[in-house]
Amino acid sequence: MVRGENSVKEQLNKIEEKVDKIEEKISNIDVTLAKQAKDLEHHIYRTDLAESNLELLREEMKPVKKHVALMDTSLKVIGAIASVITFAVGIYKLIS
User: Fold this and answer.
1) pTM for the structure as a whole
2) Element of type H or E holding 14
């Protein structure tokens, strides 16, 4: 039975080696996971900061948008008045 006992011991040693390799891989996965968690935390911080800055920019742009809309309307009104004046002057010249 010595031969059978050696065979069982060899199999147990192989199983133990495989378990050790699995533990090592799990340890490596834990290290990777910890790094990724840290990177994710930093990414979330940067995303929150970017969103805050974007909201500030939107608030700062509101007066500019209002000014652009006012200028657009003003130029359209001036253009319409100029067209009416040009038309009136043209009619006046035709009549004269």
Assistant:
1) 0.55
2) helix 2-95
